[in-house]
Design a protein that fits this description.
The protein is α/β, with parallel strands linked by helices and about 300 residues long. The protein contains 12 helices and 10 strands. The structure holds S-adenosylmethionine. S-adenosylmethionine binds next to strand 3, strand 4 and strand 5.
């Protein structure tokens, strides 16, 4: 089904960048075939995995296939903290083993991911030291974004605005010291984290122009705005992707400006943070990122 869906997608669109994510993409049998199919059509392919199932063989095959990047969350320098967050004993050991195999091939191939929450806020500096010891220069630094199972554990995970700003400042100082750079892939309102204050951290902002944005398509062909949005816009086995995107552009679902942002001069760049999180929490795209409400203390 995944192969059929990818073939359909590749026949309809020129795919420049394909990220295989999940869920856990390495659970998919013969995922190498999927990578091959996309590579044969000229797509850059990245793998976003928890790193627990990667074997030496897999890594050699991905190298031959010209996989562009592998992202693995390493959530702390302390195995027990990582395993507590993943809820899987032994996952840190296995993720680290994969990370080490990947950097042996090429350190630029690995992007370790730190997902910042209350559970690992004290581990920032030593974890960045650990990344540096792997020879990595470029990392992901995501704030915990509410959604999915994370909603159930929100109390344990959420940070206040002050804690979040302070954590990003600390991370930035450490990145400068180590000569490393981070990208925050979770769109965050600019009034909460001002990108100018973090010299070594770049920030994603979320375009609602459907012709420009990265889309998420699951193995059954369901199209969503992004990996965090629960709302299915259509299915590429039932209608062409262009029809789905045109309908969405016409129905103006993504065109609203949330009330606290309507007079803000940052709006055009900021777009109110992650509004897929608003869909997750409030059931609507119309409201500003829930982080503004959640982190108020
Ligand atoms: C959804 S996961 C799926 C792939 C794989 N199973 C994994 O554990 O990395 C893909 C990426 O999403 C990001 N991510 C996952 N949960 C997140 C959360 N609650 N907040 C922010 N980023 C998150 C991480 O950057 C992770 O690398």
């Amino acid at each position: 089904m995944a192969r059929r869906t990818l073939r359909r997608l590749l026949s309809e669109a020129r795919v420049g960048q394909l990220s295989l994510t999940g869920g856990e993409p390495t659970l998919l049998p013969r995922i190498h075939d999927i990578v091959l199919l996309a590579r044969a059509k000229g797509a850059n392919v990245a793998l976003l995995t928890n790193g627990t199932l990667l074997t030496e063989d897999d890594i050699a095959i991905y190298k031959d296939l010209g996989l562009a990047a592998i992202q693995i969350p390493i959530l702390s320098h302390r195995s027990e903290h990582h395993d507590h967050i993943t809820m899987l004993e032994g996952s840190w050991e296995r993720a680290m083993r994969s990370a080490k195999s990947i950097v042996t091939q090429n350190p630029k191939w690995l992007t370790p991911v730190f997902i910042l929450s209350r559970l690992n806020i004290d581990d920032i500096e030593p974890t960045l030291d650990l990344y540096a010891s792997l020879g990595v220069k470029q990392i992901m630094l995501n704030r915990f974004n509410i959604g999915g199972l994370g909603r159930k554990y929100a109390e344990e995970l959420n940070l206040s605005h002050e804690e979040l700003r302070d954590a990003f400042s600390r991370a930035n100082r450490k990145l400068v010291e180590l000569g490393m750079y981070a990208h925050n892939g979770v769109c965050t309102p600019m009034c909460l984290l001002n990108p100018k204050e973090y010299s070594n951290i770049s920030f994603s902002y979320c375009t609602t122009d459907l012709a420009m944005r990265p889309l998420t398509i699951n193995y059954r062909g369901d199209v969503r705005f992004c990996n965090h949005s629960p709302r299915v816009m259509g299915n590429i086995h039932q209608e062409p992707l262009t029809t789905i995107l045109q309908r969405e552009a016409e129905n103006k679902y993504f065109d609203t400006i949330p009330t606290p942002c309507d007079k803000c001069e940052l709006w055009e760049r900021c777009r109110g943070g992650c509004r897929a999180a608003s869909e997750q929490l409030y059931g609507t795209f119309d409201r500003v990122d829930p982080i503004l409400e959640i982190g108020k203390k």
